Amino acid sequence: MDRNPGRLQRAIIELIESSGSEDVGWTTSWLCKHVYGGKNSKSQRDALMRAIKTMKLPVGWKFERGWDELQLINDERFYARRRSRHEEGDEGS
Fold this sequence. Notes:
CATH topology: Arc Repressor Mutant, subunit A
Distance between the termini: 58 Å
CATH class: Mainly Alpha
Oligomer: single chain
Strand content: 5-15%
Strand order of the largest sheet: 1-3-2
Helix content: 40-55%
CATH architecture: Orthogonal Bundle
Order of helices and strands: HEHHEEH
Mean pLDDT: 79
Shape: globular
């Protein structure tokens, strides 16, 4: 089997590499709209999830279940943002 990343995996890697410090992560629906454009089907969502699950994600990134759907997140940025918001809340007290 070919070990080079496929079209979906290349699109995901490009998105991760071009993400800014404010980009904490994306839901599967947002990723599907970004990769496929417009409406997407269940088979497209399944293909996207399969691509993410089989690829080696960069350090700090993981694929996990969110509140209502799967999401690709940068764990380090997520917790850094969460800490800073918590500290801002403490200052107002």
